[in-house]
Write a structure and sequence with these properties.
This protein has 106 residues and is α+β, with helices and mostly antiparallel strands. 21% of the residues lie in helices and 41% in strands. Strands 3-4-2-5 form a 4-stranded antiparallel sheet. A two-stranded antiparallel sheet has the order 1-6. The protein is globular.
Length: 106
């Protein structure tokens, strides 16, 4: 059984400049989805086909939030979860790699 376990401890205090974010998205257009994925690689790492995790500075977090609307249309969605405090991530099954998404054109 493949298993991934890790912990995080992100305090929201004046002395801590880091935030833990989970970004998930549902983008219908392949070109836009691929551009978004490449942009998100500059902030964190892919954990599933349409999900990224990142530990970034508050400044980078604000920058990310400003950039994301450019990748959505009326039928797309992007959700960003800012997770504060202590947490554990347990993952089972296939682990995502940095490979490009498979695109099939019919």
């Amino acid at each position: 059984m493949d298993e991934e376990n890790y912990f995080f401890d992100i305090e929201e205090s004046p002395g801590n400049d880091k935030v833990f974010v989970l970004i998930i998205y549902d983008i219908t257009e392949n070109k836009t989805r691929n551009k978004l994925a490449k942009m998100l690689l500059g902030y964190g790492f892919r954990i599933q086909k349409s999900a990224f995790e990142a530990v970034i500075t508050r400044k980078k977090y604000r920058e990310l939030l400003e950039r994301l609307p450019a990748y959505t249309s009326s039928v797309d969605s992007i959700r960003v979860y800012k997770i504060i405090g202590k947490g554990q991530v347990v993952s089972f099954g296939r682990q995502e790699t940095d490979e490009e998404e498979d695109v099939i054109v019919i």
